[in-house]
Backbone:
């Protein structure tokens, strides 16, 4: 009972906190709408192709691209012209077909096809993934040679020189390859892409920003007062865990409901999706409580929390598919729980996966949740002692 | 007076090698107000936290109603703890705060709301129950802080400096209420660094300094320990430390120290020694502005015992 009283008081306070409610409820919905609309908005992706002498294999690939609905192909004489067009926003993405592609394919060697995208642009990332999927379906390997056109500050000349650099790089870059798994490694475009990844992003982000509540309760002397009542430290910790779990689950359900009802997102196998939601909420609850014991002031949690949350989200594939980053970055990304959650959602939504399919991801996520919760408990116990 | 409700024996607590509380033993009976009087940093809060089970003592033991606070969680039902700093949720109403804290003491339903009403009434806040705490004045927050310690009808009420930063009116109201709790048979442990408060409401006073309980008794007992000692207060302009030193050299002066822009002097007989003290002051070259001879009180006791004034 006392445990529920603690959770109830925390939730009641949250309900009065307009800022927190904005970040918990309004922001995720708005972001899902914007990202979903942007990514879906490209009914036709404009793809530029540079043929450096790929021969028949290149022509087959171009035909395949042309036959793909939603992709319009136009030829470019060289990589410089291509990257320039991308920098100007005339193209969504570009493909560079290497010299001797047909011969290499016949000899059974791996062929690398460059896919050029602007790193900072989400819709280009999505276009690149779609193109990558077609290329992979044709049996070639893809190198996504990325460069960032600086959104602010960078001059066009600087961007052009970046583009020139890229020309030299295209022939050498060997690392950035996409596993030949066809389109199964990316989420569908549109709201079905934005809703699950925003769920992963926001539930975690809100939870660690919400760590501020624990710091505040501590600073207000409330833990001490609660502790003066016949309540064990364990009771306080369980009360807080219930609070954070309730917030994470509530936000998850909101995003699922908004996604399904307003934007027709299919969330895949219901049992698997529910399990994934609950385990992800536990990950969030643990991380939030841990944040509450690591940060010193509520302001710190409010400032560092979102940055950490967004950073993890970027690394973990919430902003763009990990399928388009280098293997090294993909490995680094999998140090965050986000990557495992996005993998699981991809398996559920793009490949029609079930509980069995995502069991390994769930196990890893459960381990993350347990780790966070145990650490948070140990640290909270120290704080409460 | 009833039997001892609170007993502390040999309480000791250090923080990283620094001794905060050293060998404190005290007891408080039902219907008794015990004042723990001492300057800031003397160890009052640390003592209270050990009594309320919030801090484990390095040595010693605490029992309330004959049961060990350290070993039995349920003993906390007997204790009402009012922390030194207001510990309430600012964004909840007074009633919501009390409702929450009452539930921690296993109160619920109709009983809980009756207790909340009662606690609000006891602290003259009945008309503000529905208002958020962050809309309260400092004095009202303090009163609500006390109300929160009364909900579960504790037998021992522990108040840690409940009047700090409170306007005189609220302060008066709080002291009145504390006296009322005594009439109801509660044992009250009350810490303060205000000597007047300790003199006014407490049946017995313990004087604590540098973590040690250096004297204990009723006001009368403590004052009598001084013999018939008086206190001379010299207000002056100039080098007060030199003035204090000059006064100390006067035969019959037992202690002299600087506080509040004045020199406090403990003497056997104030009036007899006054001319010599003034003369010493003139010799020291510090012109005296006003002179006050005070009958012995707890301030003088503290000064006598520690050689320093209570108020810094
Ligand atoms: N948590 C703590 N960590 C380190 N030192 C502490 C802590 N709490 C109290 N102290 C020290 O113990 C001494 C007594 O403090 P306290 O009990 O708060 O005094 P009082 O309540 O009489 O003002 C002080 O020197 C204080 O600095
Ligand atoms: Mg104190």
Residues:
């Amino acid at each position: 009972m006392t445990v529920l009283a603690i959770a109830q008081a925390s939730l009641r306070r949250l309900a009065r906190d307009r800022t927190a409610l904005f970040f918990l409820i309004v922001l995720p919905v708005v972001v899902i709408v914007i990202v979903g609309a942007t990514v879906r908005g490209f009914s036709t992706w404009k793809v530029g192709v540079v043929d450096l002498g790929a021969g028949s294999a290149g022509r087959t690939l171009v035909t395949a691209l042309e036959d793909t609905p939603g992709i319009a192909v136009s030829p470019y004489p060289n990589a410089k012209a291509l990257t320039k067009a991308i920098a100007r926003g005339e193209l969504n993405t570009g493909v560079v077909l290497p010299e001797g592609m047909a011969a290499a394919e016949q000899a059974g060697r791996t062929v690398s096809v460059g896919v050029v995208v602007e790193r900072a642009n989400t819709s280009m990332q999505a276009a690149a993934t779609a193109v990558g999927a077609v290329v992979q379906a044709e049996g070639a390997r893809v190198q996504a040679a990325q460069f960032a056109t600086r959104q602010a500050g960078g001059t066009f000349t600087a961007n052009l020189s970046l583009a020139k650099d890229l020309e030299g790089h295209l022939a050498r870059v060997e690392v950035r390859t996409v596993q030949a798994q066809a389109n199964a490694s990316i989420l569908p475009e549109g709201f079905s892409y934005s809703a699950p990844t925003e769920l992963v992003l926001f539930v975690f982000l809100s939870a660690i920003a919400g760590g501020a509540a624990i710091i505040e309760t501590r600073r207000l002397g409330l833990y001490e007062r609660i502790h003066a009542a016949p309540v064990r430290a364990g009771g306080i910790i369980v009360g807080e865990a219930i609070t954070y779990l309730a917030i994470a689950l509530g936000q998850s359900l909101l995003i699922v409901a908004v996604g399904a009802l307003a934007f027709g997102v299919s969330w895949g196998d219901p049992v698997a999706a529910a399990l994934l939601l609950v385990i992800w909420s536990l990950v969030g609850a643990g991380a939030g409580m841990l944040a509450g014991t690591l940060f010193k002031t509520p302001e710190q949690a409010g400032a560092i929390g979102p940055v950490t949350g967004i950073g993890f989200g970027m690394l973990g594939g919430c902003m763009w598919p990990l399928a388009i980053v280098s293997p090294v970055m993909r490995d680094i990304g999998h140090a965050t729980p986000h990557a495992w959650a996005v993998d699981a959602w991809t398996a559920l939504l793009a490949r029609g996966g079930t509980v069995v399919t995502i069991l390994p991801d769930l196990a890893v996520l459960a381990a993350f949740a347990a780790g966070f919760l145990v650490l948070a408990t140990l640290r909270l116990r120290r704080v409460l002692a | 007076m009833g039997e001892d409700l609170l007993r502390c024996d040999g309480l000791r607590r250090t923080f990283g090698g620094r001794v905060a509380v050293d060998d404190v033993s005290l007891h408080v009976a039902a219907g008794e107000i015990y004042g723990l009087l001492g300057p800031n940093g003397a160890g009052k809060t640390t003592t209270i936290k050990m009594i309320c089970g919030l801090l484990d003592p390095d040595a010693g033991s605490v029992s309330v109603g004959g049961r060990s606070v350290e070993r039995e969680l349920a003993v906390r039902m007997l204790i009402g703890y009012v922390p030194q700093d207001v510990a309430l949720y600012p964004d909840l109403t007074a009633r919501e705060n009390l409702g929450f804290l009452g539930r921690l003491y296993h109160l619920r339903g109709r009983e809980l709301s009756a207790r909340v009403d009662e606690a609000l009434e006891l602290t003259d806040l009945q008309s503000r129950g529905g208002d958020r705490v962050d809309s309260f004045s400092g004095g009202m927050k303090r009163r609500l802080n006390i109300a929160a310690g009364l909900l579960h009808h504790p037998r021992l009420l522990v108040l840690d400096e409940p009047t700090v930063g409170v306007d005189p009116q609220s302060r008066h109201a709080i002291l009145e209420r504390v006296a009322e709790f005594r009439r109801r048979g509660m044992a009250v442990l009350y810490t303060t660094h205000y000597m007047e408060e300790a003199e006014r409401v407490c049946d017995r006073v313990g004087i604590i300094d540098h973590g040690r309980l250096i004297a204990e008794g009723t006001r009368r007992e403590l004052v009598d320990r001084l013999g018939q000692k008086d206190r001379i207060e010299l207000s002056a302009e100039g080098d007060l430390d030199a003035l204090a030193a000059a006064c100390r050299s006067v035969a019959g002066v037992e202690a002299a120290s600087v506080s509040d822009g004045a020199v406090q002097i403990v003497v056997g007989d104030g009036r007899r020694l006054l001319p010599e003290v003034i003369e010493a002051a003139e010799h020291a070259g510090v012109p005296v502005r006003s002179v006050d001879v005070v009958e012995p009180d707890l301030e003088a006791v503290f000064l006598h015992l520690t050689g320093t004034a209570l108020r810094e």
Chain A touches chain B through 22 residues (CB under 8 Å). Residues B 44-45, 84, 160-161 surround magnesium ion (ligand 2) (CB under 6 Å). Chain A is about 65% helix and 10% strand.
